[in-house]
Amino acid sequence: MNLSERLINLQSWWVASELLRRHPELELVETHPGGGLYDCLTIIGERGMNELHIDLNRVGRMHVHTPMASRFDRTRWGIEHPVEWSTERDQTDRRLIPRFLEDAVGLAAPTQTPVSTPKSLAFRVIYQLLLFALNEEAEWDARNAQLDSSGMMSDNELPYFDNIESAQDALHRGTTVSGQ
Fold first, then answer.
1. CA dihedral sign of residues 146, 136, 89, 18
2. How far apart are CA 52 and CA 45, in angstroms?
3. Are 28 and 14 contacting, i.e. CB atoms less than 8 angstroms apart?
4. What SS3 string covers the chain?
5. Could you tell me which residue, 66 or 82, shows the higher pLDDT?
6. Are strands 40-45 and 27-31 parallel, antiparallel or unpaired?
């Protein structure tokens, strides 16, 4: 991964963590749409992707997919949609892109920053760890435990968390609840 790719990966985590800091009701998942052609951090609303859906495509651009997007006044921001990562990189106001995306999906800007949640703090920590490792020789990344692999390998076959007892307990509870 070259420096440009590392910076985009890092900034995807920052943009996502900033949106979730401002809107803790949102969810963040890793997706690979197009049969795995894209590598996205995807932000979704409480009622799923049909309500609110932002793809932070790390091998492409940032896309807003929501019924509200068609009524969004993009000229107000002076930012083209879909948003190029170079547009995010070139901003002097670091919070402009998260606010643009927030407005594009119809979220009201919070009047006061919400209280931090374990989820919002976890995403900030991931960003900080990736920032810390930016110039390391080894490539660092943060990935979901579930792999969206387009049917190539079942999630249960992957050894990501074999040695982490709490992860094994959560996996067991999850499969028990879903009846698998």
1. positive
2. 5
3. no
4. CCHHHHHHHHHHHHHHHHHHHHCCCCEEEEECHHHHCCCEEEEEECCEEEEEEEEEECCCEEEECCHHHHHCCHHHCCCCCCEEHHHHHCCCCCCHHHHHHHHHCCCCCCCCCCCCCHHHHHHHHHHHHHHHCCCCCCCCCCCCCCCCCCCCCCHHHCCCCCCCHHHHHHHHHHHHHHCC
5. 82
6. antiparallel
Asked whether the predicted pLDDT for residue 68 surpasses 70, the reply is no
How many percent of the chain have pLDDT more than 90?
47
Q: Who has greater pLDDT, 30 or 164?
A: 30
Average pLDDT over residues 113-118: 92
Residues 41, 12 contacting (CB under 8 angstroms): yes
Left, alpha or beta for 150 (phi > 0: left; psi -120 to 50: alpha)? left
**Six-digit token pair at 50?**
């049909």
Distance between CA atoms of residues 165 and 131, nearest Å: 28
Instruction: Report the residue count for the chain.
Output: 180
